[in-house]
Amino acid sequence: MILITTLGFDEKFTIRFLMRHSEGSRVLYVITAEPMEERAEKALRNVEDFVRRYLEGVELITKSVNPANPPEAIKAFKEIFTKHPGELFAINVSGGMRALILELVTAAVISRVNGHLEIELENFRGVVRIPLAAFTTPPPGSEEVKILKALAKVGGMAARELSKELGIPRSTLYKYLGNLLNNKLVKSVKYEGRVYYEITELGLMFI
Fold it and tell me: How far apart are CA 163 and CA 101, in angstroms?
């Protein structure tokens, strides 16, 4: 997994982000504003020290961009994503520098990056993760929304039961299910020789 975080004047959000992803991550990009203020430089040194001490094998790359120039900032972030085709990204948007966060998310959406955004709750008691696919997935049609709602209600159904429940011919239902599967709004699970369909976390965001 590739980690990306913006860094403002306080490193604590970045440190906690790294602790959540201490396993299986190999590259960390730390995004700072240009020119870098003294407080940001101190925060960066603390992050570098943490990575050196506790995250052996993780490559830390610092990238400074000017947030006052959105086209250039977005271009710089797109170059990061281009270097890692097919990789899974975790993007921390708790780290500060609101303009950089907006530009980073814009670049991720334009690049159709595979991964998620994550942000800490204000009371520090949890983390919210939003898949980046939520920004690029075409919205389902009205009949597909009915399927999603039915699956959300019962947890999982076979095509035969779905067809009967919704009054949709099975041939038409399979067409809708194909679209939903392609867009990762539902998933198929095989159990005792039968195929069941379940709504995904992404699918729940569209009902």
Answer: 44
Number of residues assigned to the chain = 207
DSSP string covering 56-101: TTPEEEEEEE-TT-HHHHHHHHHHHHHHSTT-EEEEE--SS-HHHH
* Tokens standing for residue 45: 């040194």
* Domain annotation for the chain: domains and CATH numbers: 2-135 (3.40.50.11700), 142-204 (1.10.10.10)
Positions of the chain with pLDDT under 70: none
Q: CA geometry: angle at 118 spanning 25 and 17, to 5°?
A: 50
Tokens of 117: 């955004």
Using a cut of 0.85, tell me whether the model's pTM lies above it. no
Pairing assessment for the beta strands 2-6 and 27-33 based on DSSP bridges = parallel
Q: Where are the beta strands (DSSP E) in 86-199?
A: 88-92, 114-120, 127-131, 157-158, 186-191, 194-199
Read off the pLDDT of residues 104-132 as tens digits, 9 standing for 90 and up: 999 999 999 999 999 999 888 899 999 99
Instruction: Give the alpha-carbon dihedral of 89, 90, 91, 93, to 10 degrees.
Output: 170
CB 96 within 8 A of CB 8: yes
Return the SS3 of 35.
coil
33-59: pLDDT as tens digits:
998 889 999 999 999 999 999 988 899
